[in-house]
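Z., the sequence and structure:
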Amino acid sequence: MRAAVLLAPGRMAMQERPVPRPGPGDVLIRVHAVGVCGSDTHYYREGRIGEFVVEAPLILGHEAGGVIVAVGPGVPEERVEQRVSIEPQRPDPDSAPTRAGHYNLCPHMRFFGTPPVDGAFCDYVTIGAGFAHPIPDTMSDAAAALCEPLSVGIAAVRKAGVSGGSRVLVAGAGPIGVMVVQVARAFGATEIVVSDPDPDRRELAGRFGATAVVDPAELSDLSVDAFVDASGAQAAVCAGIAAVRPAGRVVLVGSGTPTMSLPVQRIQNRELVVTGVFRYADTWPAAIALASAGRVDPDAMVTARYPLERAAEALDSDRRPGSLKTIVEVAE
């Protein structure tokens, strides 16, 4: 099969790789579409994200969808030809977090496109059958792939406790911020304020459901129920915390510096709940339902498409003005 392989920072090459064989409980998927994530671009440009370092050739890509073409022992043959969205995780079923229902926190997780585990910028991948989620025929291949970032948005909004009538502040109008906006609206938020220094990104957030957009320098006089940071910037996090009402919630999604200073006294005095989001658990059914019902529109977020052979260009496409989400179209 074809594979777009990261050889070193800034160096991609097309290679021929063996088609993987599905093991017990696995399915083999013909990949149709893969979304480009910010983590992919970090690995491509810097060769690392924090403690995760690319030390050998690596296939990137973890936002993916396709069609099941074979099954391993223990998986019903009826699943062959089923269109699916891939939840790109292989947790250890016996780890304590997995047994407690927090499989995303499994210390032995094997996650697509995270060193040393290969991802989906290739023709075929295998995954546990339970992590290949069937999708309706009305859902596009791109939307199937984008159920992954949509799942991050769902995990964040759930942790933020958003429900009917909620007031929410979102910092950062990139792909995850825009997903959070759409999910918050679908969950019933009636006031969704988005803060971003880029006027084009602010305008984009308005198109996807933000009720107000502001420059971070002008953020003041807010009292929201929940703040979701999708920027990773310390200034944005501190400004967001200042905007949360007493007993409100703060959810940190954006990946910034390993450490940052926070207004601890305000957090204490207002009894704010501050938490993080690391990937997701049990979000795919909701993601597929929201996208299928039109409550969230992943397809509208796609701003560029590239074939697999141009994966390097796809990884650099976020530098183009107006870029929001790029799709690598794998199936010929």
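Residues 147-159 form the longest helix (13 residues). The mean pLDDT is 97.

Let me know what you think.
H.
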